[in-house]
Every structure is written in structure tokens, then in C-alpha cells.
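Quick check before the chapter quiz. The format below is the same one you will see on the exam, so make sure you can read both the input and the output lines.
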Amino acid sequence: MDYLSLLKEQFNNRIAVKEKRTGIWQIYAPFYHEDGDMVEIFLEKLEDGNVRVSDYGMTVMRLSYSYELDTPKKMEIFGKILSENQVNEKEGSIYIDTRPGLLYGTITQFAQTIAKVSNMRLYKKEVIRSMFYELVKEFVGAELAEHKPRFSMHPLPDRPELEVDYSFNDRKYPLYLFAVKDDNKAKMVTISCLEFLNAGVPFTSAVVHEEFESLSRTDKKLILSRTDKQFPTFADFKMNSNRYISRELSH
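Here is the expected output.
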């Protein structure tokens, strides 16, 4: 195929081409993942005369070994990487359609995009940390829906800054649930619960922490003294919250 010969020339013969099946060629080019494996790049001649540069789903599959694209936020980040680099995706396959004469630049662009997608796993903790409140909200809305949660409640109408993240109201004394990621939120929850008590609001409180042990010693003491139940991690909350809320609402 003429464009493959041109491509080899543009890469100074530093690539190899192998036909994997009829009409589909794999390009062995000097683009590598961080673990040293070569980036999987395939070419397919399309009926309109263009060429599709694709990974045939290999990048997402590799990524899934350590980082699943299993939440709306992760998919949003994944989609943003692709759109910013003018790359498409269908059923897990990442691809660009281009003219044969533009293959050299397209393959370089494609390899750079694959590297960015692959590196999502390297900031896994940062992404998860930024998503903590969203993950709690998704879990409450899906897994605790039977308890009829209400979102963003303000028990004191004249104090809108005192917000309850989730309220379960199937009883005389509602259960207020707060999500706490850091010291600032812990302080706000402590103040809110104290103000609710001073105003005579009847309630029971529970807190789901991103990581209770990461709070300062002072904030740990205060939140333990002002709230009724702690879930020290999100994992603990996912495992035990349904049973706890069912028991509380049965009183």
C-alpha cells in the first residue's frame, strides 16, 4: 500500500508494519507505555479512502487492570482527554480517521493521546479524592434510595450556611448524614450540629469520612463529641450504611 511506504519513509524506516488480518495493519513504531510495552496502533483503510488509526480497545483494557472507568466523573475526564486531542471512541476503541497523506502527524497525535489516557491510572488517588462528594452522592441516590433521602437540607431557614448533606425523614427524629473530606468540612459539621442542638432541632447525626484518620486531632475530638455515628472511610460507609440506617429508622 503506497501510504505505508510513505509512512515508513517519514519515520526514517524506524517502524515495522504487519498485516494482522485482511485490510488491518499493525504499526510497530517507537511509542511506548511507561512500563516499556509498545503502544498498540492499527491502521484500517476505509471505504471513503481515509485511514482509521485505532488501538482496537487495547488502551482501555490495559487501563482497566489498575483503573476502571466506572463512574460518570471518570468517564467525563476520559472524554475530555479525547475531545481535547480530537480523538474519537466507540465501544472502548480509541481512533482517528485521517487522509493517507496525513498519517505521520495523525499517528504522533494518536500516540500522545494514548499516553494521556494511560496515565489516568497515575493520578488515581487524586481523581478519587476530588470525586469523594460525588461518589457519596451517587451511592446515597442509588444504594440508599429505599430510605428516601433528601438532599441539601437547611433545618434552620435563617441560617442557610448550616447545611445537611442528606436527611432521612421516615421518623419523628430525622437522621442527618454529612460527608466530610477535610478539616474545614469537619469544623462546619461540628458547628452545624451544635447550632441545631441549641435551636432545639430533633435529629440524629452520622458522618461518612473520606479518611477519618487524616483529620487533625482537634477536629477528630470535636466531631466525635458533636455527632452520633462515624463511618471512618467511604468503604466502611458502603459496607455498613444500609444496615445502620435501616436500624435507625426502625426506632
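If your answer matched, good. The mean pLDDT is 90.
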